[in-house]
Amino acid sequence: MRLYAGHSAKLYRQIAGDLFVVIWSVVWFAIGRVVDGAIRVLADPARQVVQHGTAMGQSLGRAADEVGRVPAIGDDLRVPFVDAAESVGKMVGAANDQVTTIESVATLMGVITFAVPFLLVLLFWLPGRIRFVRTAGAVRRLLDAGAGADLFALRALATEPIRSLAQISDDPVADWRAGNRTVIKQLAATELGRYGLSVDEEDLAAGNPSRR
Q: 150 and 124: one domain?
């Protein structure tokens, strides 16, 4: 499987594109982490309520146990402390739910902040990379099977811009039909260059291009 073109402008564009995607992803991952952390800070007051409320509830529970030991009136004395401990427990539970909700929102927003830009750039970058790998693989199989210059020259005639063809020959179609090997080799080399493959003229002439 060929991931990159040979030494050409296409190779540099591919490397630049891949580096851009990597840098883009890292930057937005970092931004997502910042967003996550910024939202989690909003839960700090609720966390303090949980911390102090838990300590208070434990203190009230111990106080209820202590006054409950007072003979005769202990049970009556501990009731206010038990009620207060239950109220504090409910407050702690509500605060804890609030912390959980804020942390869930923080995680969700952090993921969305990263995922949306990442998926957008992936949508534009990945299809082209897959298309290159598949096309280069097909060309490689043709080369391994001994496809000659005529096949790739014909392909160049069908796909290359007119200006590119004019630089090779004033009448490339007529030269191809006439079997002009010089023009055919140039056309084939131009076509193969689109897929990041370079070939020796001797190999093209032999009908079995070699990859470099």
A: no
Residues 24 and 120 in one domain: yes
Taking only Cα atoms into account, the Rg of the chain, rounded to an integer number of angstroms, comes to 36
- The secondary element (H helix, E strand) that includes residue 111 is helix 74-144
Planar angle of CA 198, 199, 201, nearest 5 degrees: 140
- The DSSP result for 60-108, as a single string, is HHHHHHHHTTSTTTHHHHHHHHHHHHHHHHHHHHHHHHHHHHHHHHHHH
Q: What is the DSSP string of 129-153?
A: HHHHHHHHHHHHHHHHTT--HHHHH
Spans of the chain below 70 pLDDT: 1, 7-8, 72, 74, 143-148, 196-212
Q: Are 125 and 150 within one domain?
A: no
pLDDT at 135: 80
Q: Which domain holds residue 45?
A: 1-131
Rounded Cα distance, 125 and 129, in Å: 7
pLDDT at 212: 40
Residue 137 lies in a domain: no
